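hiii so um. not sure if this is the right channel but i have a protein structure encoded as tokens and i wanna go backwards to a sequence. like what aa goes where. can anyone help
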């Protein structure tokens, strides 16, 4: 990767300098140095349960030189190849930027990302570099891994999300789900016009809970920093939100989603625009009933392709950027999309 751009920062920072600037042409140059190069000690890995405590591979990446004393957060991202890193698993890198992943952990990640067990599949790895204090993101090169996972139960961990939309009751609150790392994800319907909530590490208030220490809104995206002493997290409006928490970086993000159906099996609109699904609070699913032609369909959020689901395995489980879903014959159908359980997003296409 070659960066062929520069960010120019004014040299006149009154907080750091007592002398005034003579001319505003005087500037400090933000000029990133060598591109971050990611390596993996192993790229063809046969995972065996008998070796679960051993190291599967070690990822290493060089630290970037930004030309001035900038700090940066480095995050390893792992995804199934071909999915454009959505969904992905993330691991915050330590100060020396090298991280060893055990056989058991890599196996859990591979299964969570949808790789079949006992056969070799492809994963991709890259490092995301977020420059602290500057709205800039860089990525390393992408490394392809051949991974053969073994069959094992997935070890999930959870965050509960109690708030004013459900009576501040952690024991019955929606959950965010994580697989052997610090990143928790899920969808939550915040039906209060002014949502407030916290994240708890157990279905009660007796253990660690997380609130917000600061937050910003960029378009529909809410971003914030979390703290064990923080206040209630707030959202600007009610809605069905995609929520993500990274306890490794103590950050969260949330954005509202509304879901639609698109495809050449949909009469009139086809692949040009969506037919809107309706959220059913009782079943916690998105539903639509309409006539379909023989063809294919997909689900997508907010009338765009940034977030869409198809079905790679023809198994009723959707994957981000997955394959088109086939509709075998024309007829009247009821279609549902269930994003309630973050361990497995599912759908049904039932002919009436």
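sure thing!! here u go:
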């Amino acid at each position: 990767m070659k960066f062929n751009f520069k960010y120019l920062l004014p040299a006149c920072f009154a907080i750091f300098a007592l002398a005034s600037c003579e001319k505003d042409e005087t500037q400090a140059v933000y000029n990133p140095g060598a591109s971050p190069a990611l390596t993996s000690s192993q790229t063809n890995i046969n995972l065996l349960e008998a070796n679960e405590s051993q190291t599967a591979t070690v990822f290493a990446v060089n630290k970037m030189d930004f030309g001035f004393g900038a700090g940066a957060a480095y995050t390893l991202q792992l995804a199934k190849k071909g999915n454009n890193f959505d969904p992905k698993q993330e691991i915050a890198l330590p100060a020396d930027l090298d991280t060893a992943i055990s056989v058991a952990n890599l196996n859990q990640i591979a299964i969570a990302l949808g790789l079949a067990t006992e056969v070799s599949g492809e994963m991709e790895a890259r490092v995301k570099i977020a420059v602290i204090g500057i709205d800039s993101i860089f990525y390393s090169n992408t490394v392809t891994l051949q991974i053969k996972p073994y069959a094992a139960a997935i070890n999930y961990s959870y965050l509960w999300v109690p708030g004013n939309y459900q009576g501040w009751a952690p024991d019955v609150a929606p959950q965010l789900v994580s697989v052997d790392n610090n990143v928790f994800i899920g969808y939550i319907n915040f039906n209060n016009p002014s949502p407030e909530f916290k994240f708890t590490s157990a279905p009660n208030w007796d253990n660690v809970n997380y609130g917000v220490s600061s937050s910003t809104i960029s378009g529909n995206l809410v971003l914030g920093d979390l703290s064990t002493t923080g206040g209630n997290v707030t959202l600007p409006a009610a809605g069905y939100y995609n929520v993500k928490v990274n306890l490794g970086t103590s950050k969260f993000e949330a954005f509202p989603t509304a879901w639609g159906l698109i495809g050449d099996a949909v009469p009139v609109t086809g692949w040009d625009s969506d037919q809107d699904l309706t959220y059913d609070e009782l079943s916690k699913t998105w539903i639509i009933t309409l006539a379909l032609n023989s063809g294919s369909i997909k689900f997508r959020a907010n009338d765009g392709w940034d977030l869409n689901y198809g079905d790679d395995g023809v198994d009723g489980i959707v994957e981000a950027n997955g394959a088109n879903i086939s509709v075998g014959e024309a007829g009247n159908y009821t279609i549902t999309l269930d994003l309630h359980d973050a361990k497995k997003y599912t759908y049904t296409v039932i002919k009436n």
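oh and The longest helix spans residues 103-112.
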